Amino acid sequence: MGAAFYKIVWTKRAQEQLQLVYIFISKDSPQNASNIVNDIIDAVGRAEQNPAIYRPDKYKMAKDGSYRAFEKHGYRISYRFNSAIVRILRVRHTKMKPSFY
Fold first, then answer.
1. For residue 30, what is the domain's CATH number?
2. Residue 101 is assigned to a structural domain of this protein
3. Measured distance CA(73)–CA(81) in Å, rounded
4. Of 15, 18, 41, 86, which sits with the fewest C-beta atoms within 10 Å of its C-beta?
């Protein structure tokens, strides 16, 4: 019997934010932009088999454990998971003022 996998779903906002990361970095280096975006996508993919792999999101007001976040290349990726889906919520630069939600 194989391990269960969660479905990764990017919100429209998170997709747009990741695209803006690529656009911003590609002004200096398209290759570096591709590498960083691919690294972020790969890191998100690690949550596919184990969504609790990253720490609980310290900026989430209700701490039920389903909100998680991690940092990669100076970007903070926030997500929430339930019994079948890992939903990517935000991709923000770590220098941006975080908001509690």
1. 3.30.2310.20
2. no
3. 23
4. 15
Phi, psi (deg, nearest 5) at residue 57: -75, 115
Pull the structure tokens for residue 67: 């909100």
Q: Give the chain as a DSSP string.
A: -PPP-PEEEE-HHHHHHHHHHHHHHHTT-HHHHHHHHHHHHHHHHGGGT-GGGSPB-TT-SS--S-EEEEEETTEEEEEEE-SSEEEEEEEEETTSPP---
Instruction: Please give the residue range of the domain that contains residue 27.
Output: 7-93
CA torsion sign, 95 to 85 to 15 to 44?
Answer: positive
For residue 91 the two structure tokens come to 């991709």
Domain count, the chain: 1
57-69 tens-digit pLDDT: 988 877 788 999 9
| Residue 50 belongs to some domain of the structure | yes
Q: Are 6 and 85 in contact (CB under 8 A)?
A: yes
